[in-house]
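User: Batch of two.

Assistant: Item 1 of 2:
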Amino acid sequence: MAARSIANATISFGLVSVPVNLYSSAESKASVSFNMLHKKCGSRLKQQYICTKDQEIVTRDETVKGYEFAKDQYVILSAEELKALDEKATGAIDILEFVPLAKVERVYLEKVYYLGPDKGGDRAYRLLAAALEETGLAALGQYAARGSQYLVLLRPSNGVIVMEQLHYADEIRATTEVTIPAGDIKPMELAMAKQLIAQTASETFDPEKYKDTVRERVMETIQRKVDGQDITSDAKPEGATKILDLMEALKASLAAPAADTEASKRKRKAS
C-alpha cells in the first residue's frame, strides 16, 4: 500500500519554491497498553480531576491552564490568549542556511519524515535532492505546524528528501552533566577491546536482523490467556558468571565467539 500524505508544505530557498507532501517515515508498533480495572468487578476505571484544596471533583469545563512560575504560584492564560500565541501554520519550510551533513550531531534528532513532490513541484524537487547529494550539504530551516515552530534539516536519501525534526540547542543536555571518574586506559586492554569490536563488526547496517521479542512475548501471553490457557512462569535463564577483572572479561569475550564458530563448523560437518 502506498504511503499516505499527512500534510502539505512548501520548501522555500532563495526565490525557489518546492511544493511537497509530508509522509511518516515509519509505522511504529504501539507498545502493548493495559487498561486499569476495578479488581473487585473487572469494570474499567475512569480518571477524574480532583482539586487538591477543596477535595472535590472538577469537570473539564471548570478547568483553566496555568504556568507555575514559582513554587505553588501560577499565571493563568485563557483559551483565547493561548490561541493567540500559537504559531500560524503557514506550511512553509523556510531554508535559512546549508550546513555539512556530517557536522550535525545525532543527539539533535527528534523525528523523521519523508518529503515527496506535490503537483508541479517534481522538477524543482529533483534538482534540490541532487544538489544536496552532490554537495554533501543539508538544508537547515524552520517549519511552522500544529501551533509550534520546528527546527528541521533536509537531507537526501536515495533520491528522496528526508526532513529531520531537530531539538533546539537549549533542549539538549550537555555531556558535561555526566560525571566520568578520572582514570587511564591500559594499552593491552584497549587493543583487546578493539579486537572484540572487530570480531562482531559489520560493514552494513541491517535492522531486519532484529525484532522486538518482548512485545511478541507479551502478545503471545495475552492470546494464551484469551484462549483460556494457564500461564506459568518460564524458568529463569542461568546468569552469566560475573567476571570482576576487566582483562579477564575481555579474554572471555574474545574466546566466546571463537568457540561458537568451532561448534558451528562441527555441526555443519556432522550434517
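Item 2 of 2:
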Amino acid sequence: MNVSRRTYLRCALLAAGAAWVEQGGRWLQALPLGLPAGVQLWSVREQMKTDPDGTLRKLAEIGYREVELFETPQFPREFRKRVEDAGLRCVSGHFELRDMKDPATIAAANELGLSYMILVFPALPQLENTSVDANFDQFVPLYEKISLSDYKWNAEQLNHCAENLKRHGIRAGYHNHAIDFKDLGGTRGFDTLIRNTDPALVCFEMDCGHVIHAGYDPIAYLNEYPTRIELLHVKDLAPGYHVSTTLDTEDKDTNAEIGAGSIDWKKLFVTASHYGHVRHYFVEHEGKMAHPPLEAVQISYEYLQKL
C-alpha cells in the first residue's frame, strides 16, 4: 500500500497524542476547537499606532493567525497587505450601524478581505446618522436609557443590513456589551436581538468578559443559543469584579489574562466544541491589566495552547 508523506505525517502526529492542523502548508499545534487563534487589535491599539508592522509581526511570532479590527483603516488594501505580510489574516471588524449601511465602508471591508462586519454596540434611532464612536462619552447617558423597542429596532436594522452584506460576501453579526443584559421587563437586549434576527443572515460574537460583567454565564448562553453564536471574544476579568450592566464597564475592573481570571475556559471550549458552530475566536484585553499588552496577549495564547 502506498502512503503519501502527508498522510504518514498526519498519522504520526495523531499517534503522538497531539492535536495538529495544517495551515498554509505548515503543521501547527491546534488550539481550542481546532481553530487558529485570533486577537482583537484593540488589545494592542497603542502599539499599533507607534509600530504597526512590528506589532503585527510580534502577534504572528506569538502564534496568532487571525486579527479582528476595531476601526476601518484609512487605506484598506495597503493595511491588508501589511497584515498578510506579517503572516496574519483580517477576518472580522467592528462597525457602527451607519457604517454597515455605507457603500464605501462595505467596499473597504471587501478590500480588507473581511468575512464579518460586526455591530459593536446597539444603535439608537435618534442617533442613527451620528458618529457615536467619535463622541462616545457624550452619548453614554442616552444609552443607559435604552429600551426594549430600541433593541427590536436594532434587530430589524441588522436583518436589512445582513441581506445587503450577503450580496457582498460578508456576514453580519452583533457584539455584546454588559448593557445588553440589563433587565428590560423580564427579558434582555441580547436575547431580544437573537430572537428577532434571521438565523440565516445574522450571527453573534459573544464577548465572554462582558457577559460575566453583567452577572451572567457565557457557557449557559452557548447552551441556550448553540447555533447563533459564531464568534467569541475570549476575554476575562480578575476575581472580585463588580457586576454591572452599564455600557462602559471595561475600565471599572481589572481584566485578566486568559487562565488567570474568572471563567472556566476548558468547560467553555468543550461546550462550544459539542455544538460545533463557533468559527473564530479572538483574544481581547481592555482596561487595566497585570502585564503590558503584548506580554498579556502572549500569556493568553500560551494558556490556550495548554488547553
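Residues 20-306 form a domain with the TIM Barrel fold (CATH 3.20.20.150).
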